[in-house]
Amino acid sequence: MAASEEVKVPRIKLGSQGFEVSAQGQGCMGMSAFYGPPKPEPDMIKLIHHAICRGITHLDTSDIYGPHTNEILIGKALKEGIRAKVELATKFAISYQDEKFDVRGDPAYVRACCEASLKRLDVDCIDLYYQHRIDTRVPIEVTIGELKKLVEEGKIKYIGLSEASASTIRRAHAVHPITAVQLEWSLWTRDVEEEIIPTCRELGIGIVAYSPLGRGFFSSGPKLIENLAEGDYRKALKEGIRAKVELATKFAISYQDGKVDVRGDPAYVRACCEASLKRLDVDCIDLYYQHRIDTRVPIEVTIGELKKLVEEGKIKYIGLSESSASTIRRAHAVHPITAVQLEWSLWSRDVEEEIIPTCRELGIGIVAYSPLGRGFFSSGPKLVENFTEGDRRKGMPRFQAENLEHNKNLYEQVNAIASRKGCTPSQLALAWVHHQGKDVCPIPGTTKIENLDQNIGALSVKLSAEEMAELESIASAIKGERYESDAGLGTWKTSETPPLSTWKRT
């Protein structure tokens, strides 16, 4: 651990209006709110005083912290000449009434909040006054106009914004110089780097990074979750997001000593489920797939164990992946199968003859993975040029030189249709999968926000029967197998399992 006793905290200019602060500040929210119950007041005042003695003089609070109690705490800590030693920042805009949050930026509210904060803090002037969140019902010029008046009246010195877009920052800065923009910026929150940070630097606006430790994650790591107290806002964040998603994960493929193995025996199934629950930090998995079929274990045995996990409330629904029609039928007879995941796209259509009809006959949902042909319909042949070390597509037959040139011509034909339709090739390919039916859910993967938005746009692409047929005609000429022969992963073609009668309980 880096030594701290001899470190002198430097001073920096925040913004371009001359406001000088300690290069590291002290966020005070957790002393009174959101991160568990309020901490003992004497301890917190002692902490603030210690911070000031060490050179941390930039104190950050808000009227919503408590609400109000954090400002009162700070006010008490600034008695007896301490006020003159600090740069005091507080915020307005978020109100909490009847268990509902509201954001306000109208002039009367701005002024009332400022007067109330001055009183709670027991000071004559606030050094830096932030709009905590932007009221999207009020033009930013109106809010900043009122803050400008408060500067002129000597009630605040500098104006700040928090969680504001680049365009809002520009509009606000045109009314009165913005000294600082507060935003979440850390090793695990970097979305501000593309537009907000450059805008601030262009305009000479200081940047105040809140939650630089990833809301405490980089202090304690995953064990942080275990210690979240009742009322800790981070707990609500976690639980709230979980409730908004349908979470699917898989088991069956293990990788040890450089070798791939597929397992479906009951003990392994249960151990995998328990481990996934722990890693995901959830009580229940919505959809639990057998990723590949263990051809040594009767499918009835594997599904029997999954059925027990459903009954125990550890999983809600059971899925299969790369499973033959007969294996699907045998599994479905033990417990209803909710979804079968399979590779289905313009360049992988072998499942249409038997698997798709079986799923539809049994009322099983279809989840199409790699609907963009493992990225081929996003980037075309140039995709190969960007394969990095460890990208498993490098070894796939369809990306090999002997097949790629042929497949390149097919991509160009798809691209021509996309141009005609006013969409991208990836949107066209994804739209084709969506047009297969309402029982089909494609799951394109991406690591870029712009690609995610583009994928969503595919839902608006309409294809006629003639266009569907034209695309299918082109795709039928794809050259190369899905996997190399020694890939070590089976597909639905090699997923038959022994009869149940052969299984011996251990």
UniProtKB/TrEMBL annotation:
Superkingdom per UniProt: Eukaryota
Gene Ontology cellular-component terms listed: cytoplasm
Annotated GO MF terms: oxidoreductase activity
Record's keyword terms, sorted: NADP, Oxidoreductase
One Pfam assignment: Aldo_ket_red
Domain NADP-dependent oxidoreductase span(s) in chain numbering: 28-220, 232-474
Designated name of the protein: DH200=94 genomic scaffold, scaffold_1129
